[in-house]
Design brief:
mainly beta, 14-stranded antiparallel sheet, 4 helices
């Protein structure tokens, strides 16, 4: 399940440097149902909480959560928490926090990004990062800034992601456009296929597909993870946005 939780939070595109306006509203909230072979196993949520005062800027404050339902808690309990502060003038993360509980495995990470130096601070250690690195949650909001027409022409792109104290390249391919039925009605979407280098998230025989609305809101509508064990899905079940 953690593969699906990651990819919901892990998309990005390198937009034009002159673009400063964002499409994000404080209070925007997306909720997803996670299912395996048509069985509901849990939920994931992403919400823009507020705009914080952080050092010299005012980044947006975003929270992401993932959890199994009470029945699957008996077999494999998941409680994942992600938090990022994004400088929207640059569309780069300032700080990232992660607390996960997956079965008997727990992990906590607190990153502070020094983009001018291409470094990340964590637990009194300094890590070298790639230029304009994203975290696991900020990448989702970066991709929603892109011009989908450019993406359709370019077909694919790669993005630097700092994760688990290592640098990875997330490659995302544009596959096609498709109209799909969902909680918002019939929505025209671009279909993207992300792939992490080094086999960090998905193996060669596995496949991930993501549907994002091809409109001004760029809402992640649906995710499918095709694995050896079957298809794991995340479907949007509610969307709220303050006007």
């Amino acid at each position: 399940m953690k593969k699906l939780f990651f990819i919901i939070f892990a998309l990005q595109f390198n937009i034009a440097q002159s673009q400063n306006k964002t499409i994000f509203n404080i209070g925007e909230k997306m909720k997803y149902k996670i299912s395996y072979k048509s069985i509901n196993v849990g939920f994931a949520e992403i919400e823009i909480i507020d705009q914080a005062v952080f050092m010299h800027n005012r980044p947006i404050h975003v929270i992401g959560k993932g959890s199994t339902n009470s029945f699957f808690d008996l077999f494999f309990k998941v409680r994942d928490f992600y938090e990022t502060y994004i400088d929207t003038s640059l569309m780069l993360p300032v700080s990232f926090n992660r607390k996960i509980h997956e079965g008997g495995f727990t992990l906590q990470q607190n990153y502070y990004f020094l983009h001018e130096e291409n470094k990340v601070l964590f637990n009194d250690s300094v890590y070298k990062s790639a230029e304009k690195s994203q975290d696991m949650l900020s990448v989702l909001f970066y991709v929603r800034q892109l011009d989908f027409n450019q993406l359709k022409n370019k077909k694919h792109f790669s993005v630097p992601v700092f994760m688990d104290e290592e640098n990875y390249s997330l490659v995302i391919n544009y596959t096609n456009s498709e109209n799909i039925s969902n909680v918002l009605g019939i929505t025209k979407c671009v279909v993207l296929q992300p792939k992490m280098q080094k086999g960090r998230i998905f193996n060669e025989e596995e496949k991930m597909l993501v549907w994002i609305s091809d409109d001004t809101k760029k809402i992640p509508i649906k995710v499918e993870a095709h694995t050896w064990a079957g298809i794991l899905k995340a479907d949007l079940i509610s969307y709220n946005r303050k006007k």
